[in-house]
Design goal:
Length: 162
Amino acid sequence: MIFTLDEWIQIIAGAVGTFGFAVLFNVRGKRLLAGTIGGLLAWTVYVALGYVIDSPILRYFIVSVVTSTYSEVFARVMKTPRTTFLLICLIPLVPGSSLYYTMSYALDSSMGDFLSKALYTAELSAALALGIVVVAAISRSITAVQSKKRKKLLAEQAKENQ
């Protein structure tokens, strides 16, 4: 798959925007680089999925899952809260233009367009949120199972040492 020049510009702009917000949120060092790469990954996956999936809502959900997983992994590797990466990496996916047009239609009293765009914006936001929740739930489940195994192993070792 080869991206068009327009898509490469979008991907680079997503990375630059992510970097800018990371600096604004006072992220430094390796975390800044990891967050920027996460934003680059997020928009690259979104654009790439455009070749195989027509629904932007489904693409938002899938990218949200990928980005949330990336954030979980890097949060553990860098011993940082996952929200540090999650908020930064999802910056390119914020439905800013949809929000803008929703408000524009509301101010123009174009209720049909307003309701249509508001529903679309809500669907995009819900897809992002659902992706985050799915990954967080799976991550917590895995952590709980690992913790249970660790406690059981420690209990067995304590019995052997007595």
